[in-house]
Fold histidine kinase.
Amino acid sequence: MTLPSDSVPVIPAIPLGIDEKTVFRAIFTAYPDALLLVDNKGTIALANPMAAGLLGYTMGELIGMSVDTLVPDTNRPRHAAYREAYGHAPVPRPMGTHMELTAKRKDGCEVMVEIALSPLQIHALPFVVAAIRGIGAYPRVKEAIQRARYSEHLAQFGHLAVDMRNTQILLDQAPVIAAAALQVETAMVLLLEPNRAEFRVASGAGLVRGEEVGAYISSNPSTSPGFLLRQGQPVIITDYRTERRFTVPKAYLDAGLVSAMAVPLLDRGRVIGTLAVRSRDPKRFGDEELRFLGSLASLLSTSLQRAQTEEALIHAQRLESVGKLTGGIAHDFNNLLTVIQGNLQVLEELGTIAKDRTAAQMVNAAARASRRAAELTSKLLAFARRQVLQPTAVDVDTLLLSMAEMLRRTLDQRIRIEVVTPPCCPAIQVDPGQLESALLNIAINARDAMPEGGTLSFSAEVHDTLPTWARQQLDEPDAHGECFVAIRVTDTGTGMSNEVKERAFEPFFTTKDMGRGTGLGLSTVYGFVKQSKGVVTIDSEPGAGTAVTLYLPSTWKSGASVDPDVREFCQQAVPRGLRVLLVEDDPEVSKITQAFLGLLDCKVTTAVNCERALSALGSSAPFDLLLTDIALGPGMRGTELAAHVQHRFPGIAILLMSGFSSELLDSARDTPSAWELLLKPFNRAELAQAIESIWIRRKTGG
Ligand code: ADP
Ligand code: MG
């Protein structure tokens, strides 16, 4: 309803007996919005109690005050101009037409308000009545403010992430920004350690006891970060006191923390850490908060990933250029040495020299020195990836065990040596001699780092794909389908500072005394691994030991569809012409298994049940391998057949197949643990691997 400013509204009659003045005064006092009557100079002529409450002044203080006082400083000049213009053309302005107005309270705080204006005349004097409503407490306004705050904080972090090359600063800022935006007590970033068994607290704000920066937290699913790791997606905890999905540390409850929210940090879909916030209020976090934290986490993980890639690239580039340089020098040197050694040899054999003892000794010493020089240049060539490698399929398990054996005999007795390898580790495609010398170099470094003794352990792990940062260091980072075996050599020695770690692969970089270190050990390892199409990394911290990991390409391809390679490898690992007795009652399974075995160059005889199998075995049992299903319908079970064969024909290897997982097998009857078990469904590669590992076990007598 709009009224012309100069007309007097017609007010219906007030019930008899009530004084009109009293009524209007009462309405003015009881009115739910703040009301101010302002004259044409901007002076407040009248204010109601709501105005006093909203603006923090007494009614007495408001009367006589300029309305400009109520306008925030930044808006004041604009407000004066507006008031001036309004005075010339006063029209009613209803509530809600101006959204972003703020009023300044006596205490200096600003409150969000909506203001309605109506011009009016009293005794022919122009006034304006302003109705002011505080809207800061409205849920929709609160939400809008909150959303604006979230965007602002995200933008702030985004700017930082674009400019910043120092990841620690980003890590430090993320929880600070999360805590400020969400107005919570604690926020933290946890990063998963390479072994994925622990998280490390990378940064945080308002951290509780036991979770200081640098502390480790197990990634077991019974812990809250471990739970998130297993979920792989955001987790909201409405109340720690009733949480049952994981164990809540007492420190959280002691610190009065009640609700929480955590989102994963991802690197190509893989969880690498988490960003978590906690609050003392229950049920603090909803969709809006989750969206904010998710955006912040994805900004953070992208920046971390980029920084890591860049760092790795710069490091690799530097080594690359040093490599080119040394490679060139070593090459020229080798030519010179050829001439020197050749001439020395001629001299050695020269009659006059051979007769002269001193001269002969001198030539001999020169020849020895030139041989040492040749060794040195060959190391340099190794670093520069110019040595001649002869890669073949190397069985990791066997190699590590024999290395360990040799080291046990030669290294300090106070150094304990361990080997841990997975049950069916695929072979790797490398030069075995060079791999041994690389591992020896690493082991010698480990010994030097453990003068008082310690533990040196070798382990191997199979990786379907490499982590992003590692893949970037490959010469062909986009090559697909390659499986890697990570050989890790860990010591409990002194560890390295960041500066040493940075330079450890450089040729001639050593921290050891003259005569003890040449600085060529790790550089030859680096060159060898690169030349073998692999990646080598160092994890080390002062006082925390060192782990050197060689990611070497396996002869396997991930996925079973890479025929030529599977065939080639299988032919290497599985003896040719293996005679297999295949016992399988399902004709389809039997057919495909025969096809797989055919690819492995096996000679296959089939039987649909144990009775047929026994008659095929006869008394001479012309087979190398019994491959049998466990459940074979009515009659004898595959395990009984296996037991029988093992007893009567111990020369026949046994491989069981089953559609049940091993837990489901009747362990009393089926004790399959003694024999290799192949779970259905299997592909060609898995079948080949199972047979291969039986043969390796047989060869090594395991
Ligand atoms: P060298 O052993 O001749 O010094 P390397 O290239 O083998 O040369 O190693 C370079 C440097 O890296 C060493 O001098 C040492 O400071 C550091 N380093 C290598 N391996 C380890 C280790 N396992 N623990 C601590 N520091 C190591
Ligand atoms: Mg060394």
User: Anything to note?
Assistant: Residues 287-349 form the longest helix (63 residues). The pocket of magnesium ion (ligand 2) is lined by residues 441, 444-445, 517, 521 (CB under 6 Å). The CA atoms of residues 328 and 384 lie 9 Å apart.
